[in-house]
């Protein structure tokens, strides 16, 4: 049973639940207390000891149901779990030895153990044999869906497929009807093994597959994401946003030891005649993050602006003081929309108001200067998200200069690669002179880094 | 046999808590049972008002133990949570004992000798006498064990978590001047959190993690039954059904169990025999705590009452 628990811990790790050795020891102790007889209690106990958040509980609950829907390996097969393939083979080969010596025309009793098992249609025994063989073939090592074939054949071999084939050959000659039955049973067995492997894949390989997919997605250019990946991409961006929020939403207190705050120390120790029992230290003053985000939602960046807006939406959750604006040919403030609505609604709303137009950076900047220039203070970070393609209209870089002078930093995130800047109607080189930082920002990973840097300057 | 014992013990926990007016789900009872058996703290998470703090109170009442409560807030530190030196007392004692000290040290010829003699007194002024125990230390010093409730741990600073680690895993604290103080009887520790911030892994790892969500309809009915005995069965069903409908809405603050109980009390006070639109609209402010929420829910009241009544007929 301990083996089973160990395999469950592995499956749990596969499902994305962090199970440390200490936690597995706790789980063992808990299971020792509650026992295996009541599945509901067992489930609760494992959920209590292993899962440490609501998400993990859900994942682990699913994992538990999947795992324990498998038949349990038979108890009286000591080699099955402890050792590898070799021991299983060793277990089978002596039994096949004398059987093959028996020669042709033997009655069914002379068949190999697997054939007998199949013919007697002992479901429990078959299920147990599959489970122990999958243990021997270390099914829990399966990582990718392409490995399904190899694991199926490993399991079948471990169950003694070779011996069964011999038996079949012999039987077709001697007892065709029985051979037919055996063949049908073998097909059923293959199917059962395939199901077991698929289940194993679902149990043990989930994490690896997800990591791989996310890794690819994180580095894929946002503008070229296929339609079917959009939903996954959104989930990924939301994950990034959550990570940013966790990292930065609660300002860490930073005491600067070493500089005595004399006034506060004296005041605090007034009770015992000014003898400084308690010392007070000076604290470092930190700016509160103030961010103004300008987001291009015109047709040329349509595919990327979705993600930009999503990220700005998450910025609103991390930082108290964010004002966001969207523009294509003119500029409007969208802070309220982003703050009150869910990401999807907000994005649809913004797109219907200003989206998909042809971009005019000049007039958008004029709009901004006219109405909102006064909101910029020396503590503000201004982020511009856009490709700086202004359809050959006046770029009004002078306004950008004034914005840069009024603010703490001006960061420009451009979805296009550095190579494209300045070609065609791109005004990037002109704007770049006034920006504190200009970064290419084409993949989810770059997006995360850029925003993380911006928030980090305030920490 | 151990397994048999386990399920009966879990039932015992359930009925023990029920006797204190706390209707626990199977999961909660399992958590309480396990925390006793493997001596681990329970970290309870869930929305506000689902009975996280109540659970600690109920356990204390059921086992007849003292409950020590530590309310966490930003800026809570060692001096307020663990122990503090009684500075004023120390100061006073040195003043009073000044002459005595002078006498004792009078015999010494040199400063060095005086210092040596002073050392012989040991750390008189840093002994147990002068320690002011705060909740955490108090909990360790209870001879009969106790229930230690560390409430809203998510409100405290991240540094405070690290302070708790020693207590949670080994039930001991280290005071530099005195050495290590171990628990006389390991206390039952309950930590609660509203998930305002994510707790550290080190803390989570030391605890059983229990999530209390909104209860199922039957369970909530039982809770109302035990807390507000005066309410009729039909009304109870209707109001719990209604609240479950309200929880499907997208509101700022969903009504939780404590609101259900408050509302049941209000309805009993108003001598309502069954729900109707009028009375629900008048008392909606008991259930919902934001103006925007009330506005969002108000137009739905009639449909929800009808739904609740219908499910009542079939349920």
Automatic annotation (TrEMBL), chain A:
- Residues covered by region (Disordered): 69-111
PANTHER family for this protein: BLL5662 PROTEIN-RELATED (PTHR39338), BLR6139 PROTEIN (PTHR39338:SF5)
What Pfam families does the database record attribute to this sequence?
VWA_CoxE
Q: What name has this protein been given in UniProt?
A: VWA domain-containing protein
Q: Which SUPFAM superfamilies match?
A: vWA-like
């Amino acid at each position: 049973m301990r083996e089973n628990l160990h395999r469950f811990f592995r499956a749990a790790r596969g499902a994305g639940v962090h199970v440390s050795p200490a936690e597995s020891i706790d789980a063992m102790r808990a299971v020792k207390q509650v026992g295996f007889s009541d599945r509901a209690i067992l489930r609760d106990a494992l959920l209590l000891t292993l899962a440490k958040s609501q998400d993990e509980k859900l994942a682990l609950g699913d994992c538990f149901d999947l795992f324990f829907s498998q038949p349990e390996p038979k108890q009286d097969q000591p080699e099955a779990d402890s050792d590898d393939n070799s021991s299983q083979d060793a277990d089978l080969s002596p039994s096949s030895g004398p059987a093959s010596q028996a020669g042709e025309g033997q009655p069914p009793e002379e068949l190999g153990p697997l054939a007998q098992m199949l013919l007697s249609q002992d479901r429990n025994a078959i299920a147990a044999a599959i489970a122990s063989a999958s243990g021997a073939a270390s099914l829990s090592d399966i990582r990718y869906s392409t490995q399904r074939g190899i694991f199926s054949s490993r399991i079948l071999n471990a169950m003694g497929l070779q011996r069964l084939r011999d038996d079949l050959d012999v039987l077709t000659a001697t007892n065709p009807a029985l051979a037919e039955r055996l063949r049908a049973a073998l097909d059923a067995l293959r199917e059962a093994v395939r199901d077991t492997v698929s289940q194993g894949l679902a149990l043990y390989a989930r994490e690896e597959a997800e990591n791989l997919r996310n890794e690819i997605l994180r580095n894929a250019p946002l503008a070229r994401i296929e339609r079917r990946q959009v939903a996954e991409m959104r989930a990924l961006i939301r994950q990034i946003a959550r990570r940013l929020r966790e990292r930065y939403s609660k300002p860490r207190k930073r005491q600067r030891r070493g500089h005595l705050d004399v006034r506060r120390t004296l005041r605090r120790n007034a009770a015992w005649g000014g003898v400084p029992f308690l010392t007070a230290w000076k604290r470092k003053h930190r700016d509160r993050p103030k961010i103004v985000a300008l987001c291009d939602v015109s047709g040329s960046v349509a595919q990327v602006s979705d993600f930009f807006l999503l990220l700005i939406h998450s910025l609103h959750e991390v930082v108290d003081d964010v004002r966001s604006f969207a523009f294509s040919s003119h500029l409007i403030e969208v802070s309220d929309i982003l703050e009150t609505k869910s990401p999807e609604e907000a994005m649809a709303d913004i797109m219907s108001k200003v989206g998909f137009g042809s971009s005019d950076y000049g007039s958008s900047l004029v709009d901004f200067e006219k109405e909102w220039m006064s909101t910029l203070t020396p503590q503000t970070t201004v982020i511009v998200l856009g490709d700086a393609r202004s359809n050959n209209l006046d770029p009004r870089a002078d306004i950008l200069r004034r914005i840069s002078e009024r603010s703490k930093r001006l960061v420009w995130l451009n979805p296009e690669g550095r190579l494209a800047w300045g070609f065609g109607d791109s005004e990037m080189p002109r704007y770049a002179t006034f920006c504190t930082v200009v970064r290419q920002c084409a993949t989810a990973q770059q997006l995360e880094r850029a925003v993380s840097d911006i928030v980090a300057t305030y920490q | 046999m151990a397994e048999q014992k386990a399920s009966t013990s879990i039932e015992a926990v359930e009925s023990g808590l029920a006797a204190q007016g706390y209707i626990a789900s199977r999961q909660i009872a399992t958590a309480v049972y396990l925390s006793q058996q493997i001596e681990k703290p329970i970290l309870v998470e869930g929305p506000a008002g689902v009975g996280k703090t109540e659970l600690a109170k109920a356990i204390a009442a059921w086992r007849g133990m003292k409950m020590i409560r530590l309310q966490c807030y930003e800026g809570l530190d060692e001096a307020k949570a663990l122990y503090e030196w009684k500075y004023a007392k120390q100061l006073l004692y040195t003043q009073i004992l000044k002459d005595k000290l002078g006498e004792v040290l009078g015999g010494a010829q040199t400063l060095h000798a005086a210092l040596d003699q002073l050392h012989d007194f040991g750390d008189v002024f840093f002994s147990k006498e002068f320690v002011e125990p705060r909740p955490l230390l108090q909990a360790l010093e209870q001879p009969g064990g106790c229930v230690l409730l560390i409430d809203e741990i998510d409100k405290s600073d991240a540094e405070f978590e690290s302070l708790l680690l020693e207590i949670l895993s080994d039930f001991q604290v280290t005071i530099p001047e005195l050495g290590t103080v171990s628990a006389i009887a390991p206390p039952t520790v309950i930590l609660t959190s509203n998930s305002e911030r994510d707790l550290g892994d080190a803390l989570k790892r030391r605890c059983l993690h229990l999530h209390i969500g909104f209860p199922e309809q039957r369970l909530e009915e039982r809770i109302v039954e035990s807390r507000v005995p005066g309410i009729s069965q039909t009304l109870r069903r209707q109001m719990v059904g209604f609240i479950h409908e309200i929880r499907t809405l997208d509101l700022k603050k969903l009504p939780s169990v404590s609101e259900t109980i408050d509302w049941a009390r209000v309805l009993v006070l108003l001598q309502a025999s069954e729900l109707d639109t009028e009375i629900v609209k008048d008392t909606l402010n008991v259930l919902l705590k934001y103006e925007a929420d009330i506005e969002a829910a108000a137009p739905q009241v009639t449909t929800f009452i009808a739904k609740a009544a219908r499910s009542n007929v079939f349920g």
